[in-house]
Design goal:
The chain is of the alpha/beta class. The protein starts with 19 loop residues before the first helix and ends with a helix. The structure holds ligand 6R9. Ligand 6R9 binds at residues 266, 313-314, 389-392, 414-419, 440, 505-507, 519, 522, 617.
């Protein structure tokens, strides 16, 4: 073993080939791989023509003359909102439902493409009247209501860019994001519904704008929570008043392919949040192409549901832009999965006949914890494709997802990508790929991925290394807002000596003998145990493969004997919580890990906990657990979905 690679120890041999019927009806064909291999650039040019309406056709595909700054389709012009709206109406699909919206309290609203187009036109006129135009940034701080999507589309219809901030983030986070991008307008709501209560949003906007100078001239407020709000005359305006007063007609104008579409802030582990910049033509091409092929979308008949909030990149690409560009019918749900009961999501799937369902491993594991008897009460037979995103999915959670939600025969696509990549990069295609639980599998056609050692040489199976994207791709980030140096340094400086710049994503991965990619987690989380570099993912998967475990997180904690030692935090399944003592459970699980992957990976300690610290998009924040494991004061918890979790964990372990 050298420190050049990450050890890979977990073996997973289950395989699931697509059924003949599924393959025969599949949207994607092998030709996609063949043509992308023949000429990658021409492939993307084709896809851009096929998936996107151009106001002015492009003649150049990729300009990579000043890496890492790429331009795709640069002399073309498009209007992203027109692509998501007007063109479907003009093609005769105005009566198709675009959004089945379900509010947490049970109110619901279905909106056709014609209606959505009409609303976005009015919203665009209302925003234009407030001075919004090309070059401006609109901050959107909303619950998951249709107006969040409408505000995004109205913004980009005008050639302006949005910056969506999670409705759960604090006034302070909102302020820093508003300031960093010099947002001109904020769109918010009085409040939204979450866990059976209204949470205020407007109040946080007021606080964010309270001190000193701000670039914001107006705040548009959607009425949703009916909670009391303070009002700053001259600045604050009710959304419904403005929409009502706005002109109904709005002609979409073309903007350059490289016109900024949005900024989305990622927190990262250190330093101030990075404003990831995406532009229009390349982003929309890859969003629409992947949405169609990875999910095998049939827009006439499918009902698609991605459970992500629009505050996450997944909500940008696979709630707003991909599905709407493809003319899909989708579900949008405002609340949490367990309000008012633990079957809420399954009830929604049954109600709307959802056929494509895309969610995160964290959600799947929390359903595993509660038990299969809950989803089994619902009719989920409409489902024909399942997707996963956000973290590696443990093989056992994958199997549970397929068996319990997918009736034992539904393909699962495990999609690897990032805020920075803009769209899916690695995934199975459900009609073509023989699935392996726990592997994200293959680069999508037109994407070039390599797994390298620290020295930049390719790592051979079965060892792991660093996952890099070796060629520019259409939906790639174009920079960090206002900070080109940080962009180069953060993503492109890992392998300065290679002849072409390579994008380093921060994740570890290994490739198996078939060429399938297995993600190993963030390389910052890799542990060094007696000189062996072990990934968190495999040990977590080994823990989850025991029938008593619902969820697990492991960290490396300083250890005198071995440098670092594995420390695990484990949530038991609900029906196991009282079946044994914590000491018995941890003894059993230490043995289990040793048996599954070897003694080297056996945790020094296992803590049985009831919660794990997670971000708003459901990622486990291991550095906070490492603070606990090493007995340090707990670091910055501001990006946690639930800031009380660390208190609960440390109290329990005292
Ligand atoms: C889309 C999204 C990106 C990071 C990424 C990786 C992890 C996402 C994954 C996955 C393994 C998958 N990640 N999908 N790891 N398998 N299918 O999640 O974007 O919030 O920017 O996070 O998430 O570590 O680097 P973002």
């Amino acid at each position: 073993m050298t420190s050049n690679s990450i050890d890979s120890l977990l073996h997973e041999s289950r395989r699931f080939a697509p059924s003949d019927a599924f393959s025969a009806a599949s949207e994607a064909s092998r030709d996609l791989y063949t043509s992308a291999k023949e000429d990658r650039i021409e492939f993307w040019a084709d896809k851009a023509r096929e998936y996107v309406h151009w106001h002015k056709p492009f003649t150049e595909t990729l300009d990579w003359s000043t890496p890492p700054f790429a331009k795709w389709f640069a002399d073309g012009e498009l209007n992203v909102a027109y692509n998501c709206l007007d063109r479907h109406v003009l093609a005769g699909n105005g009566d198709r439902t675009a959004i089945h919206w379900e509010g947490e309290p049970g109110d619901s609203r279905s909106i056709t493409y014609a209606e959505l187009t009409a609303e976005v036109k009015r919203a665009a006129n209302a925003m234009a009247a407030l001075g919004v135009g090309q070059g401006d940034v609109v901050a959107i701080y909303m619950p998951l209501v249709p107006e969040a999507v409408i505000a995004m589309l109205a913004t980009v219809r005008l050639g302006a860019a949005h910056s969506v901030v999670f409705g759960g983030f604090s006034a302070e986070s909102l302020r820093s994001r508003i300031d960093d991008a010099s947002a001109k307008l904020v769109v918010t709501a009085d409040g939204g519904w979450r866990k059976g209560k209204v949470f205020p949003l407007k109040a946080a906007v007021d606080a964010a704008l309270a001190n000193g100078e701000s670039s914001v001239t107006n705040v548009l407020v959607v009425k949703r929570g009916d909670n009391d709000v303070e009002w700053t005359e001259g600045r604050d305006l009710w959304w419904h008043d403005q929409i009502e007063a706005a002109e109904p007609e709005h002609e979409a104008q073309g903007f350059p392919a490289e016109n900024p579409l949005f900024v989305l802030y990622t927190s990262g582990t250190t330093g101030k949040p990075k404003g990831i910049l995406h532009t229009s033509g390349g982003y929309l091409t890859q969003a629409a192409f992947t949405h169609k092929n990875v999910f095998d979308l049939k827009p006439e008949t499918d009902v698609y549901w991605c459970t992500a909030d629009v505050g996450w990149i997944t909500g940008h690409t696979y709630v707003t832009y991909g599905p709407l560009a493809n003319g899909a019918t989708q579900v949008l749900y405002e609340g949490t999965p367990d309000t008012p009961n633990q079957g809420r999501w399954w009830e929604i799937i049954q109600k709307f006949g959802v056929s494509i369902f895309y969610t995160a491993p964290t959600a799947i594991r929390s359903f595993m914890k509660a038990g299969r008897q809950i989803p089994e009460q619902y009719d989920l037979s409409s489902i024909r494709v399942l997707g996963s995103v956000g973290e590696p999915i443990n093989p056992e959670a994958w199997i549970w997802y397929r068996d319990v939600i997918g009736a034992g025969n539904t393909p699962i696509v495990d999609t690897w990508w990032q805020t920075e990549t803009g769209a899916i990069m690695v995934s199975a295609l459900p009609g073509l790929t023989t699935l392996k639980p726990g592997s994200a599998q293959v680069p999508i056609p037109g994407i070039k991925i390599d797994i390298l050692g620290e020295d930049g040489t390719r790592v051979d199976p079965p060892n792991g290394g660093l996952l890099v994207v070796s060629e520019p791709w259409p939906a790639m980030l174009r920079g960090i807002w206002g900070d080109p140096e940080r962009f180069k340094e953060t993503y492109w400086s890992k392998f300065p000596n290679l002849d072409a710049p390579k994008y380093f994503a921060g994740d570890g991965a290994h490739v198996d003998e078939d060429g399938d990619i297995w993600l190993l987690g963030r390389v910052d989380d890799v542990m060094n145990i007696s000189g062996h570099r072990l990934s968190t993912t495999e040990i977590e998967s080994a823990l989850v493969s025991n029938h008593i475990v619902a969820e697990a997180a492991v960290v490396g904690a300083a250890d005198e004997a071995t440098g670092q030692a594995v420390v695990a935090f484990v949530i038991l399944k609900s029906n196991q919580e009282h079946a044994q003592t914590a000491a018995e459970a941890s003894a059993l699980l230490r043995l289990h890990v040793a048996k599954e992957i070897g003694a080297i990976a056996r945790p020094r300690e296992i803590f049985i906990v009831s919660e794990l610290p997670k971000t708003r998009s459901g990622k486990i924040m291991r550095r906070l657990l490492q603070d606990v494991a090493e007995g340090r004061e707990i670091g910055d918890t501001t990006t946690l979905a639930d800031t009380t979790v660390m208190q609960i964990i440390s109290d329990k372990l005292k």
